[in-house]
Description:
The structure is a homodimer. By secondary structure, chain A is an alpha/beta fold. Chain A has three domains: 1-43; 62-154 and 285-318, Rossmann fold; 157-284, 3-Layer(aba) Sandwich (Rossmann fold), CATH 3.40.50.2300. Helix content of chain A is 42%, strand content 17%. The first copy, chain A, contains twelve helices and twelve strands. Chain A has helices at 5-12, 16-24, 31-44, 50-57, 73-88, 102-113, 128-135, 157-170, 186-199, 217-229, 240-252, 285-298, and strands at 62-67, 92-97, 118-121, 140-143, 152-155, 175-180, 206-212, 234-237, 262-267, 279-282, 315-318, 321-323. The longest helix of chain A is centred in the N-terminal third of the chain and has 16 residues, at 73-88. Chain A starts with a helix and ends in an 18-residue tail after the last strand. The relative contact order of chain A is 0.11. Chain A binds chain B through residues 2, 47, 49-52, 54-55, 60, 62, 69-71, 73, 76-77, 79-80, 83-84, 87, 92-97, 99, 108, 110-112, 114-115, 217, 244, 248, 251, 270-275, and chain B through 2, 47, 49-52, 54-55, 60, 62, 64, 69-71, 73, 76-77, 79-80, 83-84, 87, 92-97, 99, 108, 110-112, 114-115, 217, 244, 248, 251, 270-275. Chain A binds a DNA duplex through helix 2 and helix 4.
Amino acid sequence: MVATLRDVARAAGVSPATASRALSAPELVAPARRALVEKAAQDLGYRPNLAARGLTTGRTGNLCLVVPDLGNPFFAGVAKGVQRRARELGHAVFVADSDEDARLEADLVERLSAQADGTLVCSPRMSDERLAELTADRHVVLVNRRLPGRPSVVVDNTDGMRQAVRHLHALGHRRIGYAGGPEGSWSDARRRDGLKVAAHGLHRLEVVDLGHFAPTVVGGTAAGDLVAAASITAVIAHNDLVALGITERLRVRGRSVPADVSVIGYDDTVGTLGHPALTTVAIRLARLGSVAVDLLLDGRASTGRAAATGADEDDISLPVELVVRGTTGPAPTPPTDGVSR
Amino acid sequence: MVATLRDVARAAGVSPATASRALSAPELVAPARRALVEKAAQDLGYRPNLAARGLTTGRTGNLCLVVPDLGNPFFAGVAKGVQRRARELGHAVFVADSDEDARLEADLVERLSAQADGTLVCSPRMSDERLAELTADRHVVLVNRRLPGRPSVVVDNTDGMRQAVRHLHALGHRRIGYAGGPEGSWSDARRRDGLKVAAHGLHRLEVVDLGHFAPTVVGGTAAGDLVAAASITAVIAHNDLVALGITERLRVRGRSVPADVSVIGYDDTVGTLGHPALTTVAIRLARLGSVAVDLLLDGRASTGRAAATGADEDDISLPVELVVRGTTGPAPTPPTDGVSR
DNA sequence: TTGTAAGCGTTATCAA
DNA sequence: TTGATAACGCTTACAA
């Protein structure tokens, strides 16, 4: 049905070996024959069979990406970046969604990585031990998570939190809450750390830990009630969806954003979609994906490496940027009922 | 490095052929040897090389999905459903994002479909001719688009529009707008048709075509201004993102939703995220994806086929459902300035 | 029920 | 510079 290399060789009057070389290593074959082969390939609409090629070369030309939830705009954004870069580099990508199930996640990595030249893993919640075991003897780059001895691309959560906290502090907020992500989330732990570091040394700043929430609007709704009860004037959320849920819940409960409470999200996945538009710590998601591909494919990120603040060659940290929009404003002056001095 | 079938055969003391059969057609081999082979495979951590298998069987065990934009929650939702169903059926899936570029889209289909047992194509805007040509001699199922002679899975746009229009009409709206999707979008054309059909026969209902907009919040912002200028009391948007943009723009311009203008979205990709929560024509996106996989893999959708309203065996139409939330309400009584009778 | 051997489409090795 | 030929890992006639 479809033309094979032998067909091309026959049509060009050369041996399959020469045809192969003419197409994959043109400099090794005489110009005249090369042209012959190229023409024959063109005419027959020849497409190399990548599976067959992979069998002998050991390289498949495929990558694979495992994420917990494609419906989460964070991962969709990363996937998009991965796609794009992989395509530019001539690779196809298997995408697998684990439905937030760590067992399935491991399964997918094992199954798919065998068919690929490398694997990108977004696994926020798998234990370090399991993840280390899973990624041993495999060509893997971790995305949005760091693990000793494994190459990874993350974002600078410490700096993100610092920017967020300083912004709130400058606006006069002195008691701010943190609505965290799911228990066990690696990036959530980093953001908590960052928050602690950032708060330290800032004058009279108190941080209230509101707990762990699902990284969704629904999770934010629950968080919103805690915000309302916590006598804080600002809250930083684990991500934008949670922030949106909080904002909405506060509105329902008659608290105004940002007049009564300021809200900051994380990731910048919802743009100006909410009302007021969400102030957020912006991550360049597609870049997170594309840098991961570069690191995976040649062991070093290509462009913009200088801008990275990573400690190690194989541990890249991408900058983040606070984008101030409508959900943050000056802290309300506290009621004069004695609590404040 | 990694165990091959020969290794397993050797370890089990049988020939490669027997080992192969023991693993892929167990009933053909004596229980005793079968157990031997299974144990050996287990011990060696044997994993069949799928590329090699594909070379002889002609089946790869892979599917591929091409979408215009993974960042669009519509396609992310479809992708998720495709994933899930494919995984259940033991298939891996290549996902490709064409960045809304029809040329690239065709390219991706050509490149990837060669490595897969079948291809799912979401191509809202490619011309019928080009799409027909591209999908000839290829095992393809079209998603959210119909083309004569090609199997497809779509949603019932006619019914969706009917539900939306009837809802507005029942609320007393008599002049409603339609903020369409991009020029050339297949589903947009179907929704326009559906709108016409639905409006027909409804008492004194007038439909105003507001034009074509990008299927994004930004597109909706532009549409919002036209809504404000059009002296209509309700608008149906091409999708939820556009609806959100419209709602936000109207708010900025001092028009209240739904008191002044009712807004209906399409797809149900944003849930209750907006404020007020968006009334929308809900599509079960993941189901759209999973049904497409079923149709692709065995020529007939498995479960729930009865519920489908498709005309043809290979043209499945999925039901939609109007979900009434906060952005629709009774039509405002028109000012008594003579226009109304 | 099992084994031998051929072949899937490609690249790599080796001589010529 | 080119061409036989042997692999890559697997499945499948065909034969035993």
